[in-house]
Write a structure and sequence with these properties.
The protein is α/β, with parallel strands linked by helices. The protein has six helices and five strands; from the N terminus they run ααβαββαβαβα.
């Protein structure tokens, strides 16, 4: 007998497709938002139950999470990481700093006015720092976007 959860997971897999069901994430952190990504991957929020896994090599990743202010000094490295990722690849800007340059744009090295000025971004997560719940919500939205794209 198939339980309710089994039917739900089968329907979700038919709806999303295999790529959306297992997202491998490479995370680049320059600031405090990285701690929230770590919390979302930790045991309390556990985004592995959604099929997400943080990988250590960007060449194996499907998704690039960038958190913190992106400055001119790191743009070339981010472009290189993005270029070496496998296709299809997706980029998520985590927090206000990666999305818009952030509120600390007047101190120290001048950050860009958003990550999308240097590489294409698929999803923006607002907040300073964004809560782990919003990161989980963003992963679900990205899975829906990938599922629609695969069909």
């Amino acid at each position: 007998m198939i339980g309710v959860e089994d039917r739900h997971s089968e329907a979700r897999e038919r709806r999303l497709g295999p790529l959306a069901e297992s997202l491998w994430i490479y995370h680049v952190s320059f600031s405090c938002c990285g701690l929230e990504v770590g919390a979302a991957a930790g045991p309390r929020f556990d985004w592995e139950r959604l099929g997400c896994k943080v990988v250590e090599d960007h060449r194996n990743a499907d998704v690039l999470f960038v958190s913190g202010p992106v400055t001119e000094g790191v743009v070339e490295q981010l472009r290189e990481i993005y270029g070496e990722m496998r296709e299809p690849r997706f980029v998520v800007a985590v927090g206000s700093c990666a999305s818009t340059g952030g509120m600390f744009s007047l101190e120290g090295e001048k950050p860009l006015k958003g990550l999308d000025a240097s590489i294409p971004v698929d999803l923006f997560i607002p907040g300073c720092p964004p809560r782990p719940e919003s990161l989980i919500h963003a992963v679900l939205r990205l899975q829906d976007k990938i599922g629609r794209r695969e069909k």
